Amino acid sequence: MGGKKFRVPLVVYIAGPVGFTLIESVAQASDFLFDHWPGNDSLAWTDAMKRCAEDYASDDASAAFLIALEGAGISYDRTVEIY
């Protein structure tokens, strides 16, 4: 799980002093789902956690992660250039 990178990194906007976090890998997505999720009980959250934990392809994990973000109303941006 840890080494799989997302094809396109994304910025996820979160509450707090920083205001955002960069998600570049399956491991980071899994950590975000576990640490910053409101409720941890939706079907989309469960599917995303499963895809991150069960060694699915990074594209599958990324797609499930985005669906979970959208379902929870969490904003993200895939157009930010990372240098």
Overview of the structural elements:
Strands 2-1-3 form a three-stranded antiparallel sheet. It is an alpha+beta fold. The chain has helices at 26-35, 43-53, 58-72, and strands at 5-13, 20-25, 76-77. The radius of gyration is 12 Å and the shape is globular. Helix 1 (26-35) runs antiparallel to helix 2 (43-53) and helix 2 (43-53) runs antiparallel to helix 3.
Summary of the model, kept short:
This protein has three helices and three strands, in the order E-E-H-H-H-E. By secondary structure, the chain is α+β, with helices and mostly antiparallel strands.
The total beta strand count reads 3
Low-confidence stretches: none
Q: In whole angstroms, how far apart are the ends?
A: 24 Å
Number of helices: 3
Kindly state the mean pLDDT as a whole number?
86
Q: Per the principal axes of the C-alpha atoms, what is the gross shape? A: globular
Helix content: 40-55%
Structural class: alpha+beta
**Succession of helices and strands:** EEHHHE
Biggest pleated-sheet summary: 3 strands, antiparallel
Give the SSE map:
Elements: E1 5-13, E2 20-25, H1 26-35, H2 43-53, H3 58-72, E3 76-77
Antiparallel strand pairs: 1-2, 1-3
Helix pairs in contact: 1-2, 2-3
Summary tags:
83 residues; alpha+beta; three-stranded antiparallel β-sheet; 43% helix
